[in-house]
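B., you asked whether I could sanity-check this one before it goes into the benchmark set. Here's the sequence:
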Amino acid sequence: MAVMKRHLLCAGFLLASLAVGCARMPSTINPNGAPTRQLIVYFTLSAPVDPRYYYFIAIDNSGNTNEGPVPIVANPSAPIPATGVPLIISNSTLPPQFYLQYHQPSFFEYRNLQFIGPPYYGALSQDGRTIGVIMDLDRIATTVPTITLNIITSDRLLPPESQFIELVYDGLGPSGNSYLIIPIDVNGAYSNADAAVPEREGDTSIAAIDIVDWSVEVRLTAP
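And here's what the prediction gave me:
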């Protein structure tokens, strides 16, 4: 599968901390305390989140910047994980090593397809269009200087027994394959406004999964 890559440079954009006062229920805060290495991600949709649909932040933590998470448009002939997640690492048949899923309406983190708990923080905006999370980078990667990341939405999961199931989906870039290369050994902030090809409205048929804006911040010293 051909993949277009964007390596964004910090251009002075600073993502403010996700504030509880700006969120509406449901939200989650991990009781174990704020992580010292944080990955902060938010993305905005064309219409409010629909709890029937699936929202993913998918991460490849191999350190190989020549591959990254992309959506599975239809179930390929290769085996699909039992979870049915519509995510795959480009140039392979493997799912991403780490992903966060929001669905009905809860936040879950998975590593190697195993549930490892909720993120430190996750919530929706008051208008229901923006999903925001703070994740612990130590859960994601500790031995590599970069990760690749994509935000992927889908109207459903892939049933393993079906070989070809067309999905309605969205991801970063015109075809959903424009994963980001994010340095995680330095502080940095990245946004749709700085992207070579910004995410635009109307590139999928369901407004509730149509990504229109996003931002990512690496914060290595928590406030």
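One thing to flag: The chain has one helix and 15 strands. Otherwise nothing jumped out at me.
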